[in-house]
Amino acid sequence: MDKKKIIIISLIAVAVIAVLALPLIDGVSPKREPVAEEDRIVVIKLQGPIQESMGGFFAAGISPDYVYNQLQRAGEDPGIEGVVLRVQSPGGSIAASQEIAGMVREFEKPVVVSMADMAASGGYYISAPAQGIVAQPGTITGSIGVISSIIDLEELYDKLGINVETIKSGEHKDMFNRSLTEEERQIMQDISDEAYDQFINEVAEGRDMDVEEVRKLATGELFLGSQAKDLGLVDRLGGVDEAIDYLAELNNLETPVRYEFPAPSLLTQLFDYGYSVLASLERSFIDPELILLEKLREGVPPEIRYQVR
């Protein structure tokens, strides 16, 4: 039996054992009683790139669904008076960043952001609507801008002797399957400019700044937390405890208590793990190079990401 078959059989066995063990493990999981303290400030950690889906158990990321679920838990708990979002992110997709920013803006309880090592691009986008932002002096933030990348494979295909025949309806439907025309470059530039204006307006509204003042800062430049504070992009310097104190100060909470949600049950963790096993099975059957070439051949439109480069 070759090595690949052994790996596949092992992954299947792990998945089957995990599924069979779920009821037993969940039945013996310790039950956590709700915490009784008032004026609790829950710290919710948001780590990784911002994207629509976080993927499997081992994937890190910030998705709208995850943020929604966490905020819903905080909103339904009467003992929680506010939320500190601990943001560690280089950025991510436009739509996901906008959706999360909207949740932060509309949440019924106070939200303050505590920036970790990096909260740049999309990481700053989702932070801007918060009631306040606290960062360390050395936190990397800013990078207010938009970037898109398109891979042109025409010359590579020519060298490999690959002939791609495209049948389309719509003049620009195949624009990501070949070199862009000047008109199509302008189309992409217009999209980027519109997304850029949306980013600037979000920051201006969230930070109560003039749009033109934000535009002067929106060069894609990175700032340290100390610089961002001087520029009005950050309110205070410090860590999570300082963010809790700031939230309490803004909302007249006399005895704020730091709180974090209990870790997910083993049932939830094993259920999520099953998805990663299925993904591993796919990768075991297909060489990574073929997967990459197939995705490139399909001409998937580029993701326009707020990210550091």
Task: Summarize this entry quickly.
This protein has helices at residues 3-28, 64-76, 94-106, 122-125, 154-160, 182-207, 211-217, 225-231, 240-250, 266-285, 288-297, and strands at residues 40-47, 80-89, 92-93, 111-120, 132-135, 140-142, 222-224, 236-237, 257-259, 305-306. The chain has 309 residues and is of the alpha/beta class.
Distance between the termini: 45 Å
Q: Kindly provide the radius of gyration, computed on alpha-carbon positions and rounded to a whole number of angstroms.
A: 23 Å
| Proportion of strand residues | 15-25%
Low-confidence stretches: 25-34, 296-309
What's the structural domain tally? 1
- What is the mean pLDDT? 80
Number of strands: 10
Helix and strand string, N-terminal first? Answer: HEHEEHEHEEHHHEHEHEHHE
Question: For this structure, what is the CATH class?
Answer: Alpha Beta
Percent of residues in helical segments?
40-55%
Summed up, the helix count is 11
CATH architecture: Alpha-Beta Complex
Anisotropy-based shape: globular
Q: Find the CATH superfamily.
A: 2-enoyl-CoA Hydratase, Chain A, domain 1
